[in-house]
Specification:
335 residues; alpha+beta; Pnp Oxidase, Chain A; 14-stranded mixed β-sheet; 3-stranded mixed β-sheet; 7 helices; 17 strands; globular
Length: 335
Protein backbone atom coordinates (compact mmCIF):
# COMPACT_ATOMS: atom_id res chain seq x y z
CA UNK A 1 0.00 0.00 0.00
CA UNK A 2 1.33 3.43 -0.93
CA UNK A 3 2.10 5.77 1.96
CA UNK A 4 -0.42 8.52 2.61
CA UNK A 5 -1.95 10.43 5.50
CA UNK A 6 -4.13 7.46 6.44
CA UNK A 7 -1.27 4.97 6.64
CA UNK A 8 0.67 7.45 8.80
CA UNK A 9 -2.21 7.91 11.24
CA UNK A 10 -2.62 4.13 11.45
CA UNK A 11 1.12 3.79 12.22
CA UNK A 12 0.81 6.40 14.98
CA UNK A 13 -2.21 4.65 16.48
CA UNK A 14 -0.15 1.44 16.70
CA UNK A 15 3.12 2.94 17.90
CA UNK A 16 1.94 5.93 19.98
CA UNK A 17 -1.13 4.79 21.93
CA UNK A 18 -3.21 7.72 23.09
CA UNK A 19 -1.49 10.19 20.77
CA UNK A 20 -4.30 10.21 18.18
CA UNK A 21 -7.52 11.74 19.49
CA UNK A 22 -10.86 12.64 17.94
CA UNK A 23 -12.94 15.70 18.74
CA UNK A 24 -16.53 15.07 17.72
CA UNK A 25 -17.95 18.40 18.87
CA UNK A 26 -18.58 20.96 16.12
CA UNK A 27 -15.81 23.54 15.79
CA UNK A 28 -15.45 26.54 13.52
CA UNK A 29 -11.88 26.66 12.10
CA UNK A 30 -12.60 30.02 10.44
CA UNK A 31 -13.43 31.52 13.85
CA UNK A 32 -10.21 30.46 15.62
CA UNK A 33 -11.73 27.46 17.44
CA UNK A 34 -9.06 25.06 16.21
CA UNK A 35 -6.23 27.54 16.79
CA UNK A 36 -7.39 28.06 20.38
CA UNK A 37 -7.46 24.33 21.12
CA UNK A 38 -3.99 23.79 19.67
CA UNK A 39 -2.61 26.81 21.54
CA UNK A 40 -4.01 25.68 24.90
CA UNK A 41 -2.71 22.14 24.45
CA UNK A 42 0.68 23.46 23.41
CA UNK A 43 0.85 25.56 26.57
CA UNK A 44 0.47 22.28 28.48
CA UNK A 45 3.22 20.64 26.39
CA UNK A 46 0.68 18.34 24.78
CA UNK A 47 0.89 17.75 21.02
CA UNK A 48 -1.40 14.85 20.06
CA UNK A 49 -2.65 14.34 16.54
CA UNK A 50 -6.15 15.79 16.69
CA UNK A 51 -8.81 14.77 14.21
CA UNK A 52 -11.75 17.16 14.19
CA UNK A 53 -14.60 14.99 12.97
CA UNK A 54 -17.19 17.74 12.58
CA UNK A 55 -15.53 21.02 11.58
CA UNK A 56 -17.65 23.70 9.94
CA UNK A 57 -16.70 24.56 6.39
CA UNK A 58 -16.68 28.12 5.07
CA UNK A 59 -20.38 27.76 4.30
CA UNK A 60 -20.93 27.33 8.05
CA UNK A 61 -21.97 23.70 7.66
CA UNK A 62 -20.56 20.34 8.71
CA UNK A 63 -19.49 18.52 5.59
CA UNK A 64 -17.68 15.25 4.83
CA UNK A 65 -14.20 16.76 5.20
CA UNK A 66 -12.38 16.31 8.51
CA UNK A 67 -9.52 18.46 9.80
CA UNK A 68 -6.39 16.82 11.20
CA UNK A 69 -3.81 18.76 13.21
CA UNK A 70 -0.32 18.21 14.65
CA UNK A 71 0.88 15.37 12.41
CA UNK A 72 4.54 16.40 12.60
CA UNK A 73 4.53 18.08 16.02
CA UNK A 74 6.76 15.91 18.24
CA UNK A 75 9.95 13.96 17.79
CA UNK A 76 8.10 10.65 18.07
CA UNK A 77 5.72 11.41 15.21
CA UNK A 78 8.57 12.68 13.04
CA UNK A 79 10.49 9.45 13.70
CA UNK A 80 7.49 7.45 12.52
CA UNK A 81 7.12 9.65 9.44
CA UNK A 82 10.79 9.13 8.55
CA UNK A 83 10.74 5.41 9.30
CA UNK A 84 13.31 5.77 12.10
CA UNK A 85 13.53 3.99 15.47
CA UNK A 86 12.21 5.72 18.57
CA UNK A 87 15.77 5.77 19.94
CA UNK A 88 16.97 8.07 17.14
CA UNK A 89 18.39 11.38 18.34
CA UNK A 90 17.68 14.71 16.69
CA UNK A 91 21.17 14.88 15.09
CA UNK A 92 20.59 11.38 13.69
CA UNK A 93 17.23 12.49 12.32
CA UNK A 94 18.83 15.52 10.68
CA UNK A 95 21.49 13.31 9.10
CA UNK A 96 18.78 10.97 7.87
CA UNK A 97 16.98 13.86 6.18
CA UNK A 98 20.17 14.85 4.37
CA UNK A 99 20.65 11.25 3.23
CA UNK A 100 17.08 11.09 1.96
CA UNK A 101 17.57 14.28 -0.01
CA UNK A 102 20.62 12.79 -1.71
CA UNK A 103 19.14 9.31 -2.32
CA UNK A 104 16.25 10.49 -4.46
CA UNK A 105 13.56 8.22 -5.81
CA UNK A 106 11.89 9.15 -9.12
CA UNK A 107 8.08 9.14 -9.15
CA UNK A 108 5.84 6.71 -10.95
CA UNK A 109 2.75 7.57 -13.00
CA UNK A 110 -0.48 5.64 -12.56
CA UNK A 111 -3.82 5.76 -14.35
CA UNK A 112 -6.72 7.90 -13.18
CA UNK A 113 -8.79 4.83 -12.35
CA UNK A 114 -6.15 3.68 -9.87
CA UNK A 115 -5.67 7.09 -8.22
CA UNK A 116 -7.53 7.49 -4.90
CA UNK A 117 -7.52 11.28 -5.26
CA UNK A 118 -9.66 10.91 -8.39
CA UNK A 119 -12.53 9.33 -6.47
CA UNK A 120 -14.33 12.67 -6.55
CA UNK A 121 -13.78 15.52 -8.99
CA UNK A 122 -15.41 18.95 -9.14
CA UNK A 123 -14.90 21.17 -12.16
CA UNK A 124 -16.41 24.29 -13.68
CA UNK A 125 -19.27 25.85 -11.78
CA UNK A 126 -19.27 23.00 -9.24
CA UNK A 127 -16.01 24.17 -7.66
CA UNK A 128 -16.60 25.64 -4.21
CA UNK A 129 -13.67 26.16 -1.86
CA UNK A 130 -16.21 27.13 0.80
CA UNK A 131 -16.99 23.42 1.16
CA UNK A 132 -13.59 22.98 2.82
CA UNK A 133 -12.98 23.66 6.55
CA UNK A 134 -10.26 26.30 6.24
CA UNK A 135 -8.70 28.00 9.26
CA UNK A 136 -8.17 31.53 10.40
CA UNK A 137 -4.91 31.26 12.27
CA UNK A 138 -4.34 34.57 14.08
CA UNK A 139 -6.48 37.32 15.50
CA UNK A 140 -5.80 39.88 12.76
CA UNK A 141 -5.94 37.53 9.77
CA UNK A 142 -7.74 39.10 6.83
CA UNK A 143 -9.49 35.84 6.03
CA UNK A 144 -9.19 32.05 6.09
CA UNK A 145 -5.88 30.74 4.78
CA UNK A 146 -4.63 27.59 3.08
CA UNK A 147 -0.95 27.16 3.92
CA UNK A 148 0.22 23.89 2.38
CA UNK A 149 2.52 22.97 -0.52
CA UNK A 150 1.88 24.15 -4.07
CA UNK A 151 3.11 22.27 -7.15
CA UNK A 152 4.59 24.08 -10.14
CA UNK A 153 6.56 22.98 -13.20
CA UNK A 154 9.29 24.91 -14.96
CA UNK A 155 8.15 25.67 -18.51
CA UNK A 156 11.55 25.06 -20.13
CA UNK A 157 13.17 22.25 -18.14
CA UNK A 158 10.08 20.36 -16.97
CA UNK A 159 11.46 20.32 -13.41
CA UNK A 160 8.80 20.12 -10.68
CA UNK A 161 8.94 22.48 -7.73
CA UNK A 162 6.96 22.14 -4.50
CA UNK A 163 6.96 24.90 -1.93
CA UNK A 164 4.81 26.40 0.80
CA UNK A 165 2.78 29.51 0.03
CA UNK A 166 0.03 31.08 2.05
CA UNK A 167 -3.22 31.47 0.16
CA UNK A 168 -6.06 33.64 1.42
CA UNK A 169 -9.41 32.37 0.20
CA UNK A 170 -11.05 35.28 -1.64
CA UNK A 171 -14.14 33.59 -3.08
CA UNK A 172 -15.44 30.10 -3.76
CA UNK A 173 -13.05 29.76 -6.68
CA UNK A 174 -10.21 32.19 -6.01
CA UNK A 175 -7.38 32.71 -3.56
CA UNK A 176 -4.46 35.04 -3.12
CA UNK A 177 -1.05 33.35 -3.22
CA UNK A 178 2.08 34.97 -1.83
CA UNK A 179 5.37 34.06 -3.50
CA UNK A 180 8.72 35.19 -2.17
CA UNK A 181 11.52 35.66 -4.75
CA UNK A 182 12.54 32.01 -4.88
CA UNK A 183 11.75 29.07 -7.13
CA UNK A 184 8.00 29.47 -7.66
CA UNK A 185 8.46 33.17 -8.36
CA UNK A 186 11.20 32.41 -10.88
CA UNK A 187 8.93 29.94 -12.68
CA UNK A 188 5.99 32.33 -12.61
CA UNK A 189 7.98 35.25 -14.00
CA UNK A 190 8.89 33.20 -17.06
CA UNK A 191 5.21 32.51 -17.69
CA UNK A 192 4.23 36.10 -17.00
CA UNK A 193 6.87 37.58 -19.31
CA UNK A 194 5.42 35.43 -22.09
CA UNK A 195 1.84 36.41 -21.12
CA UNK A 196 0.98 32.81 -20.20
CA UNK A 197 -1.08 31.40 -17.35
CA UNK A 198 0.95 29.16 -15.04
CA UNK A 199 -0.58 25.81 -14.06
CA UNK A 200 -0.45 25.13 -10.31
CA UNK A 201 -1.89 22.64 -7.84
CA UNK A 202 -2.05 22.71 -4.04
CA UNK A 203 -1.97 19.55 -1.92
CA UNK A 204 -4.20 19.40 1.17
CA UNK A 205 -3.28 16.26 3.05
CA UNK A 206 -0.61 13.61 2.46
CA UNK A 207 1.91 11.58 4.43
CA UNK A 208 4.09 13.91 6.56
CA UNK A 209 7.19 12.70 4.70
CA UNK A 210 5.63 14.18 1.55
CA UNK A 211 5.29 17.55 3.24
CA UNK A 212 8.82 17.31 4.68
CA UNK A 213 10.22 16.67 1.22
CA UNK A 214 8.29 19.67 -0.10
CA UNK A 215 10.41 21.82 2.26
CA UNK A 216 13.53 21.01 0.23
CA UNK A 217 15.49 24.19 -0.49
CA UNK A 218 18.28 22.83 -2.65
CA UNK A 219 19.20 23.63 -6.26
CA UNK A 220 16.47 24.73 -8.66
CA UNK A 221 17.47 21.97 -11.09
CA UNK A 222 16.41 19.18 -8.71
CA UNK A 223 12.87 17.84 -9.20
CA UNK A 224 11.24 17.85 -5.79
CA UNK A 225 9.05 14.85 -6.59
CA UNK A 226 12.37 12.91 -6.62
CA UNK A 227 13.33 14.40 -3.24
CA UNK A 228 9.92 13.55 -1.77
CA UNK A 229 10.38 9.98 -3.02
CA UNK A 230 13.60 9.87 -1.02
CA UNK A 231 11.76 11.00 2.11
CA UNK A 232 8.97 8.48 1.58
CA UNK A 233 11.38 5.69 0.73
CA UNK A 234 9.25 4.86 -2.30
CA UNK A 235 8.19 6.52 -5.55
CA UNK A 236 5.54 9.23 -5.26
CA UNK A 237 2.57 8.00 -7.24
CA UNK A 238 1.49 10.68 -9.71
CA UNK A 239 -1.53 11.03 -11.96
CA UNK A 240 -2.37 13.49 -14.76
CA UNK A 241 -4.23 16.54 -13.48
CA UNK A 242 -7.80 17.09 -14.55
CA UNK A 243 -7.17 20.54 -16.02
CA UNK A 244 -3.72 20.18 -17.57
CA UNK A 245 -3.38 16.43 -18.13
CA UNK A 246 0.21 15.21 -18.47
CA UNK A 247 1.48 18.79 -18.44
CA UNK A 248 1.01 18.91 -14.65
CA UNK A 249 1.15 15.68 -12.66
CA UNK A 250 -0.39 15.63 -9.17
CA UNK A 251 0.04 13.19 -6.23
CA UNK A 252 -2.39 10.30 -6.62
CA UNK A 253 -2.55 9.58 -2.88
CA UNK A 254 -3.22 13.11 -1.64
CA UNK A 255 -6.42 13.74 0.27
CA UNK A 256 -7.35 16.85 -1.72
CA UNK A 257 -5.68 18.61 -4.66
CA UNK A 258 -6.79 22.05 -5.84
CA UNK A 259 -5.79 22.83 -9.42
CA UNK A 260 -5.59 26.33 -10.80
CA UNK A 261 -3.57 28.92 -12.67
CA UNK A 262 -1.56 31.98 -11.74
CA UNK A 263 -2.65 34.79 -14.06
CA UNK A 264 -0.01 36.94 -15.79
CA UNK A 265 -0.24 40.54 -14.67
CA UNK A 266 -2.75 39.74 -11.93
CA UNK A 267 -2.21 41.27 -8.50
CA UNK A 268 -4.49 41.61 -5.49
CA UNK A 269 -4.29 42.98 -1.95
CA UNK A 270 -4.03 40.10 0.51
CA UNK A 271 -3.95 39.93 4.29
CA UNK A 272 -3.34 40.88 6.94
CA UNK A 273 -1.72 37.61 7.94
CA UNK A 274 0.49 36.83 10.92
CA UNK A 275 3.70 36.93 8.97
CA UNK A 276 5.37 39.85 7.18
CA UNK A 277 3.49 42.91 5.82
CA UNK A 278 3.32 44.49 2.39
CA UNK A 279 3.59 41.70 -0.21
CA UNK A 280 2.31 41.59 -3.79
CA UNK A 281 2.02 38.63 -6.14
CA UNK A 282 0.24 37.13 -9.15
CA UNK A 283 -3.45 36.36 -9.41
CA UNK A 284 -4.49 32.72 -9.27
CA UNK A 285 -7.59 31.12 -10.72
CA UNK A 286 -8.69 27.68 -9.53
CA UNK A 287 -9.67 25.27 -12.29
CA UNK A 288 -10.25 21.90 -10.62
CA UNK A 289 -10.37 20.22 -7.20
CA UNK A 290 -9.72 16.50 -6.69
CA UNK A 291 -10.46 14.63 -3.48
CA UNK A 292 -10.63 11.18 -1.92
CA UNK A 293 -13.70 9.73 -0.33
CA UNK A 294 -13.73 9.99 3.50
CA UNK A 295 -11.39 12.90 3.07
CA UNK A 296 -9.36 14.84 5.62
CA UNK A 297 -7.29 17.99 5.14
CA UNK A 298 -3.92 18.96 6.61
CA UNK A 299 -3.09 22.65 7.25
CA UNK A 300 -0.59 24.84 9.11
CA UNK A 301 -1.30 27.69 11.49
CA UNK A 302 0.41 31.03 10.37
CA UNK A 303 -0.69 36.05 9.52
CA UNK A 304 -0.03 40.51 7.58
CA UNK A 305 0.53 41.21 3.84
CA UNK A 306 -0.52 42.06 0.30
CA UNK A 307 -0.01 39.20 -2.12
CA UNK A 308 -0.91 37.05 -5.18
CA UNK A 309 -4.46 36.31 -6.17
CA UNK A 310 -5.64 32.88 -7.30
CA UNK A 311 -9.09 32.43 -8.80
CA UNK A 312 -10.93 29.67 -10.65
CA UNK A 313 -11.72 29.71 -14.35
CA UNK A 314 -13.51 26.50 -15.34
CA UNK A 315 -12.81 25.70 -11.70
CA UNK A 316 -12.58 22.23 -10.29
CA UNK A 317 -11.18 19.98 -7.61
CA UNK A 318 -10.48 16.33 -6.95
CA UNK A 319 -10.29 14.45 -3.67
CA UNK A 320 -10.60 11.05 -2.08
CA UNK A 321 -13.86 9.98 -0.57
CA UNK A 322 -13.92 11.00 3.12
CA UNK A 323 -10.67 12.92 2.72
CA UNK A 324 -8.89 14.56 5.61
CA UNK A 325 -7.18 17.92 5.76
CA UNK A 326 -4.15 17.79 8.03
CA UNK A 327 -2.73 20.83 9.78
CA UNK A 328 0.40 21.47 11.79
CA UNK A 329 0.00 24.19 14.38
CA UNK A 330 2.03 27.40 14.58
CA UNK A 331 5.08 26.20 12.68
CA UNK A 332 7.16 28.28 10.26
CA UNK A 333 7.82 26.76 6.87
CA UNK A 334 10.54 27.01 4.28
CA UNK A 335 9.89 27.80 0.61
Amino acid sequence: MAKDLRTFIADCERQLPGEVIHITKQVNPANYDVTAIIKHLGAQKKFPIIIFDNPLNLNGKVGPIKLTMNCEISQGKSQIALGMPRSASRPQMAEKCLEMEEHRVPPTIISKKDAPVKENTMTGKDVDLYQIPIMRHHEMDGGPYIVLSTITKDRKSGIYNLSYHRMEVKSKNSTALYASPRHLWKIFKDYEENNLEMPVATVLGHHPAFHMGACYSGPFEVSEYDVIGGYLGEPVRLVPSETFGDDLLIPADAEIVIEGVLKPGGRVVEGPFGEAPGYLGPQRYTTCVHYKSARSITATARCISRSLHRKAINPGWTCRAKARICAAAARPFRV
